[in-house]
Amino acid sequence: MVLEQPLRSFFMQLAKSKPLNKAAKKWGLKFGASQVVAGATLEDAMKNVQLLNSKGLHCTLDHLGEFVTEKEEAIEATEACLNVLRAINETGAMCNLSLKMTQLGLDIDEEFCLDNMKRICQTALSFNIFIRIDMEDYSHCEQTLRILSILRKDYDNVGTVIQAYLHRSEADVAALKGVPLRLVKGAYKESEKVAFQDKAKVDENYITIIQNHLDSGSYTAIASHDHMIIDKVKAYADKNKIPKEQFEFQMLYGFREALQKELMEEGYKVRLYVPFGTDWFGYFMRRLAERPQNIAFALRGFFKK
């Protein structure tokens, strides 16, 4: 169940508010955010990653931030990503890196962003770490796939995310055969011109692109907390003799811990998306927009403060 459209739109608008995002950096992790964000610092995040690894969970770290408009900020974000890679390498953690290219200067200059991405991919390659480029709103979709195509010529340790609610996604998945993809339903507010608005159609397309990518022999990350989707994927993989080594289930840090454990006990790889940093507000508002349960989750955290 998703939020009613007016309330969902309200939280999505809050996520884009620059004044609120700026203020949130000074607040610290508030309103229950500490339950879904693994700390303000890399040190905090790595402690959480190592704890999760000890339970058998794989991770992907995301230094939160997006929609950067100054080159200096983008360079700082690039250095932060490089520091994450060094920390993963030094600790030997079972962990990838996820990033948003608007944090690395995509809205400033595409070539500048590409140069930053090449630095990150080269360092990650030397450490044998995989880089996941998060897909952002529709306005950045074409740019993201264009940069990915350039990077894949030299780096096979980079992939991206495809969002099932977009009309173009089935064609994009077909074009990305052989590229490791994280497949998601989608978390941004998009117009009916580019995205399905009906949940049933999104779910139907989600299953379609998952099955298509698995059928192509490509490594597939299924990022969902929806047990019905997960059960359908397990049944399809079993029926079509798709090995468990070809896919993994991904979930967000702080959610569905019992389901994570159940999947691991059944022999599936489970990876958690672990965000950290002071720029947490936009990420947290999108989580509140996705499901009504998340609002109650946040209120519990608020009253604990």
From TrEMBL:
GO molecular function, one term: oxidoreductase activity
SUPFAM superfamilies with a match to the protein in the record: FAD-linked oxidoreductase
EC class: oxidoreductase
Keyword Magnesium: no
Pfam name, any one: Pro_dh
Domain (Proline dehydrogenase) ranges: 45-293
Keyword Mitochondrion: no
Pathways involved: Amino-acid degradation; L-proline degradation into L-glutamate; L-glutamate from L-proline: step 1/2
EC numbers on record: 1.5.5.2
Reaction it catalyzes: L-proline + a quinone = (S)-1-pyrroline-5-carboxylate + a quinol + H(+)
Signal peptide: none
Annotated keywords: FAD, Flavoprotein, Nucleotide-binding, Oxidoreductase, Proline metabolism
Listed InterPro entries: FAD-linked_oxidoreductase-like, PRODH_bac_arc, Proline_DH_dom, Proline_oxidase
Cofactor(s) essential for the protein: FAD
Protein name: proline dehydrogenase
The organism of origin for this protein: Shouchella xiaoxiensis
